[in-house]
Specification:
The complex is a heterotrimer. Chain A contains 14 helices and twelve strands. Chain A is an alpha/beta fold. Chain B has a single domain, classed as P-loop containing nucleotide triphosphate hydrolases (Rossmann fold, 3-Layer(aba) Sandwich). In chain B, the strands form two sheets. Chain B has a seven-stranded mixed sheet, with helices on both faces. A four-stranded antiparallel sheet of chain B has the order 2-1-4-5. In chain B, strand 9 (238-243) and strand 10 (246-252) form a beta hairpin. In chain B, helix 4 packs across helix 5 (143-155) and helix 5 (143-155) crosses helix 6. The longest helix of chain B is centred in the middle third of the chain and has 18 residues, at 201-218. Classes of the chains: A alpha/beta, B alpha/beta, C mainly alpha. Chain C: One of its GO terms (cellular component) is plasma membrane.
Chain lengths: 339, 335, 317
């Protein structure tokens, strides 16, 4: 089966005053049409840079320093600016974290939405306006006609994020990249926005790459999950397998760090000691070793590969996991296919 | 050790609360024009009453704009109240001038959301921790040093941290410094305003555990303000849910989470994503739309425009907060 | 909108009055008086006394001020102590040239600083950027009088292309072309100073906007780079620039005093200089009032433009 999105050995580098850093270091993602992949990580894991790199929106100082990004088999990394524009917003759309700053403050909601519509379809201004109002209605904005004439500052955060989503859906993209779309919102609004994304997914059959730090959001949305730590994918699995049986010590640590409202009283959280390494000073060996309770000498010296360790394509990048799980399992996994 | 014992003790032996808030209101004028006439008010806190007993942690949850942070700041007299009373250990302080508040300041301290913004970047950790007790006459230059050492130990920072500046620390460590600074005056009441929401998930747990340990070891009395239900329930024995400046439900944590009475509380709980993908197809009702502006709250029950169960009575008549230990402000409580 | 405008205008009245009081006090505190400046030192004292009597300089200062104010209320700005002409007449014939010079310089400055600043920002750290940043430093560092004299020397004396001063040719000139020819050098000197400062300002403002998230949103939509810069970024970058160019107008009025001297430009700068030297109180008071009114009016204009350009700023009553 052909993948919709295929990211191979993608590395992203940024120029900084202290020299070049590589916050994303050789990640591999493959996504089928209609599939939702969540990339989970903390700040500094490189998750946002990875998302931006797909559409080459890294901004000043950032560049793709290795690997390829293929959409329907076409390599986006080698495309010229003009070629890339026919993908941006049309084939692949993006939603950003901060609805407060993602919209231009001096242009009306309508003009920003109409621009998005007219960039990829030959519609008259009037026709585009009608479509814009429809889009706003479809993302649950009351009085869409009136909102078209309003400016972003007069809308709440949740409403702005709906506008951003409406804009992203304008050209019925095949792939939606959402970079922490609900982090800046209240839980009630977050739930509404996630519902909205689910409905869009069902209706359009589009694939979604959802970047988040919140395991709750992952559990709500993902088909498959990649756990990113310090620029590397440390574990990858389908969502049920991951939550049922997290393998990498980092994933396990993340899950034990989140207090659950209905946890038994007195049950303590088990935090991960230390903090996320800076991309300017990545630890040698396994990048998680200095925070890992199970690390031994090998972990400090040699980086483990990301390999299938269980059936269903459950992969982990950990020496201890490889030793613990019988090799047959891994073989089954690689025969079983999936990525 | 066992917080349940504390809870039952309280009902049997009525003791005076450390903090009592009665009908507290904090309004911000909406100024218009050059002469700044108040053209209306943002009713950030609009008639809140609650008691916090010694040694307990009261959690306060709600969406942004519900007034939870303003409530905390008003209790500490960092914001002027418009109406109502605040009793600290029986002493009414809402009417005090700032000068009269000064000797009381050490008794109430705050832990902020952004530890970086709340720590003076030009002072070393030693100064940050030693100056408050000296300024308030709780220690002299000599005796303060052992105090500072003890604080570091409490919050789990190495001695080498003393002569460094806030910017040299990671977010989690800065929050440890912020906690130590708040503890340096040995306050009776600590208001924690979203102390972990700016931190990474793995670091949040470190700070939550630290706060939990300190609670138990130092028998702290806390007001724990957060939007994350998980963090609040991890640390609190009682929880109050705020909506548009009012408490809509208050009670023991287990009751509020296990048996919410206010539709808003339940919808808020429903909105919280569950950490189990098998539960994601669950049937759940969500509150509709955005919360209205606190400058122009709806009449009747403030939640009625978003409430799936609202009736005519809800639109017209404001329900009072009623009930015993588990109180709710709703005409038609659930259950 | 209208109530806002009305209120701003009403507030302007006490402000203007306050400024005239301060100005009057400063003028009175300055050494010398109009009569001493006017008259030959050998004039007999009786004559001086008579002159003072005539000009009303014997009454106490506050009486003099209120007399002036009374005149103002009736629309009278008084008569010049030195030329005896009505002050309104003096200013009336001088204000035109000054405004012409100031706005020509401002317009030219905008015309150069805006595109250069934008280009510098969008091509940051290129040779063009370095060159323009360097030139803008040169522009701010050259004293205007030095540049003025230099330009006169080169273009008027050596090359003879442009007139060295004045506003129109004495023999036969007077058309629009002639005025523009005279305008070229003084306007250039003022514009160079503006351009130097403003290139850096426009560049910084644009750079600030270029970092904003909404530009990434625009790019993610598939917008062309041209549209990203000129449709999305520029309007935001112009907002702070608007304020700064507005604040330039009062400075231009002040700066023109010097330039009008060098180029013999018949504007209020020259008039101000003469009035200061001769302690011509009525003319000075009126000039000051006019300058203050211009400043307040530009501030108001900038605020109104700002609210038109930025939907987040709305003035209602």
């Amino acid at each position: 089966m052909a993948y919709l999105l295929e990211v191979e050995e993608l590395s992203v580098s940024f120029r900084t005053e202290g020299g070049e850093i590589t916050p994303v270091d050789g990640i591999r993602i493959a996504l089928n049409p209609g599939e939702t992949m969540c990339i989970v990580g903390e700040s500094g894991s490189g998750k946002s840079a990875a998302a931006l790199a797909i559409l080459r929106l890294l901004g000043e100082g950032g560049r793709i320093s290795g690997g390829s990004v293929r959409l329907n088999g076409e390599d986006l990394v080698s495309k010229t600016g003009a070629e890339l524009r026919s993908f941006r917003g049309k084939e692949v759309a993006m939603i950003f974290q901060e609805p407060m700053t993602a919209l231009n403050p001096v242009l009306s909601v309508g003009s920003q939405l109409i621009e998005a519509i007219r960039l990829h379809s030959k519609r008259s201004r009037k026709e585009a306006r009608r479509v814009a109002a429809e889009l706003l209605r479809s993302v649950g904005i009351p009085r869409p006609e009136a909102v078209l004439g309003e400016y972003p500052h007069s809308l709440s955060g949740g409403m702005r994020q709906r506008v951003v989503i409406a804009m992203a859906l304008a050209s019925e993209p095949k792939l939606l990249i959402a970079d922490e779309p609900t982090t800046a919102l209240d839980v009630t609004i977050q739930a509404q926005i996630l519902e909205l994304m689910k409905r869009f997914r069902e209706r359009s059959g589009a694939a979604i790459v959802l970047i988040t730090h919140d395991l709750g959001v992952v559990a709500e949305m993902a088909d498959r999950v990649a756990v990113l730590y310090a620029g590397r994918i440390v574990e990858e699995a389908d969502v049920f397998s991951l939550f049922e049986n997290p393998l990498h010590p980092y994933t396990q640590g993340l899950m034990r760090s989140v207090p659950s409202p209905d946890a038994v009283r007195g049950q303590r959280l088990v935090p991960i000691p230390g903090s996320v390494p800076s991309p300017a000073a990545m630890p040698a060996g396994c990048r998680f070793h200095d925070r890992c309770p199970q690390a031994d000498r090998r972990c400090r010296e040699e980086e483990p590969p990301l390999e299938p360790v269980r059936a269903g394509g459950h992969k982990a990048r950990c020496w201890a996991v490889r030793e613990r799980l019988p090799a047959t399992d891994a073989t089954v996994a690689s025969v079983g296919g999936g990525l | 050790m066992n917080p349940n014992i504390q809870a039952t003790n309280r009902t049997e032996l009525p003791e005076a609360p450390l903090l009592r808030v009665e009908n507290l209101k904090t309004y911000y004028p909406l100024r218009r024009g050059t002469f700044g006439r108040a053209a209306g008010f943002v009713r950030a806190v609009d008639g809140v009453s609650l008691d916090v007993y010694r040694g307990e942690t009261m959690g306060i949850v709600g969406e942004s704009g519900c007034g939870k942070s303003t409530l905390g700041r008003t209790i500490l007299r960092l914001e002027p109240s418009r109406e109502g009373r605040i009793y600290l250990g029986g002493e009414e302080i809402a009417s005090y001038s700032q000068r009269r508040m000064r000797p009381l300041r050490p008794r109430m301290q705050m832990i902020f959301q952004d530890p970086f913004a709340s720590l003076n970047p030009r002072k070393t950790v030693r100064d940050l921790l030693a100056e408050p007790p000296i300024a308030h006459g709780l220690a002299d230059r000599r005796s303060v040093q052992s105090r500072v050492g003890r604080l570091l130990e409490w919050v789990g920072l190495p001695k080498t941290a003393l002569d460094r500046y806030p910017h040299e620390f990671s977010g989690g460590q800065r929050q440890r410094i912020g906690i130590a600074r708040a503890l340096s005056l040995e306050p009776e009441l600590i208001v924690c305003d979203e102390p972990v929401s700016a931190l990474d998930v793995s670091v949040q747990a470190q700070i939550l555990n630290l706060l939990k340990d300190l609670q138990e070891e130092l028998k702290l009395t806390c007001l724990f303000i957060a939007h994350g239900l998980g963090a609040v329930s991890y640390l609190s024995s009682r929880v109050a849910v705020m909506y548009l400046g009012k408490i809509v439900e208050i009670g023991p944590k287990e009751d509020l989470i296990g048996r919410p009475l206010h539709p808003y509380t339940r919808l808020l709980w429903n909105s919280n994503p569950v950490s189990d993908p098998r539960l994601r197809e669950r049937d759940r009702t969500l509150p509709a739309g955005d919360p209205p502006s606190p400058a122009n709250p709806p009449p009747g029950c403030r939640f009625h425009p978003r409430c799936p169960y609202a009736s005519r009575k809800c639109r017209e008549e404001e329900p009072p907060l009623a009930g015993g230990r588990h109180a709710v402000a709703c005409h038609y409580p659930l259950d | 909108m209208f109530p806002y405008l009305l209120r701003r205008l009403l507030i302007a009245i006490p402000v203007l009055l306050g400024i005239t009081v301060i100005n009057f006090v400063i003028m009175k505190l300055a050494p010398g008086n109009p009569v001493e400046m006017l008259i030959d030192p050998n004039t007999p004292p009786e004559l001086i006394e008579a002159k003072k009597q005539m000009l009303g300089l014997h009454s106490p200062a506050y009486v003099q001020y209120f007399k002036w104010l009374q005149g103002l209320a009736h629309g009278q700005l008084g008569y010049s102590f030195s030329s005896y002409a009505p002050v309104s007449h003096l200013i009336g014939e001088r204000i035109g040239p000054t405004l012409l010079l100031a706005f020509a310089a401002l317009f030219a400055g905008l015309l150069v600083a805006l595109p250069v600043g934008i280009f510098s920002a969008t091509r940051r750290n290129t040779r063009f950027d370095y060159l323009m940043t360097g030139l803008s430093f040169v522009g701010t560092s050259i004293p205007p009088f030095f540049l003025g004299l230099g330009l006169i020397y080169v273009f008027a004396l050596k090359l003879g292309w442009l007139p060295p001063g004045g506003m129109r040719d004495l023999n036969g000139g007077g058309g629009l072309g002639d005025t523009l020819l005279h305008l070229l050098l003084p306007a250039t000197v003022l514009a160079v100073a503006i351009v130097g400062k403003k290139i850096r300002y426009v560049r910084a403002s644009m750079l600030d906007v270029l970092k904003q998230d909404y530009l990434r949103t625009a790019r993610a939509k598939g917008a062309r780079e041209f549209a990203v810069i000129y449709r999305h970024a520029l309007r935001n970058a112009l907002l702070p620039i608007l304020t700064v160019f507005g604040s330039e107008i009062p400075l231009l009025l002040g700066g023109s005093i010097l330039i009008e001297q060098i180029f013999q430009w018949p504007g209020i700068g020259q008039l101000a200089m003469q009035s200061i030297l001769s302690r011509d109180y009525p003319t000075l008071m009126a000039l000051n009032l006019v300058a203050a009114a211009v400043v307040l009016a530009t501030n108001l204009l900038v605020d109104l433009l700002y609210s038109a350009a930025d939907p987040r700023v709305r003035y209602d009553a």
